[in-house]
Amino acid sequence: MSNLNEKMVALGTQRSVIRELFEFGKMRAAEIGAENVFDFSIGNPSVPAPACVNETAQKILSEMDPVLLHGYTSAQGDAGVRAMLATSVNQRFGTDYKADHFYMSVGAAAALCCCLHGLCNAGDEVVIFAPYFPEYIVFAEGAGAKPVIVPADTEAFQIDFDAFSKALTPSTKAVIINSPNNPSGAVYSSETVRRLADILQERSKAYGHPIYLISDEPYREIVFSGTKVPFLPDYYANTLISYSWSKSLSLPGERMGYVLVPPCVDDWAQVYAAVAGAGRCLGYVNAPSLFQRVCAACADETSDISVYETNKNLLLGSLRDMGYHVTEPGGTFYMFPRSLEADDVAFAERAKAHNLLIVPGCGFGCPGHVRISYCVPTERIERSLPAFEALAKEYF
Ligand code: PLP
Hints:
The protein has helices spanning 6-13, 17-32, 51-63, 66-69, 79-93, 107-119, 135-142, 161-167, 190-207, 268-282, 289-297, 306-322, 344-353, 378-393, and strands spanning 38-39, 102-105, 125-129, 146-150, 172-177, 212-216, 239-244, 257-260, 334-335, 356-357, 359-360, 370-373. The chain is of the alpha/beta class.
């Protein structure tokens, strides 16, 4: 028996279901040809970053003093970069934020960890809505907190407010929301957000301490048909935003994002210090210099995300025609249909027999569903439709 941290050993040893599917896909591709495997498992953007990303990177590389460029930035990120972000956010949301409200991080993953480690003491509870990004559980537990799961509203994938009210206790320190949502694609309406804010306000008062809302927003820009994503600090003051360019600029490998602690947060200086202290403790300081600068310069751009809406329309219409029950996504590049049998793992296994790689919902805390990541070339969706149909025919 080693004397290592067994929890970490376990985390490092277990392969996620998504990784398993990915490996299976590679094996099948070698057997039957990549064009015959319909891999909808991973949320890796399928469109390239916009031209401004490479252009800006090249310009910086050729024009900027290399000692400065490749040197450490401030722990919380370059001040000029953060000022540019403040300007961009202020223009979009009518706010008056400053550079010092931002903390640069390596993607949303690190941003979330900085928030959770900064806010939580051992034993605090963090409320998470199903269906959820599975790493929330890992991040909350890693911060010493106890994840408390609110079961999904499986009709509209908004919030089951009765279940939410029951989940809140005097130990609740934070609530994580993710809209547009991975895996359902749902976008919370302004009514949902208003009700959420009212309950949080009421309970913060009743418990005598703030309940923080952590709004995880890596899909903020990826919305369809003009769907509006409410800006959370307008509704609830004690909001921290976790943002990332992994999806909007198609840069998941560059690991760039930020935490925004808006000035309306109670005891702002303490909360920002806690986020920065968590960054220090976790080693998430000085996010990569080149891509801090690139992302700040391209913050008002996105990659050509129109293909995701094309894919959503094609897949949604086709699946519904075949008899699948699917809630229409308002954004992201995921859809979360009901599995055609109660056991979503068994259903995803059956799908594999048709070379369809889709992820069981139980890993997202929402059994009875499967996640389809449609950030793929449209022609892969077209070619996969007979496989979805053959799968449906096994049940109808
Ligand atoms: N939050 C959600 C909801 C996600 O879907 C992801 C990645 O897929 C992340 C956070 C992590 O994003 P990043 O790659 O920026 O760390």
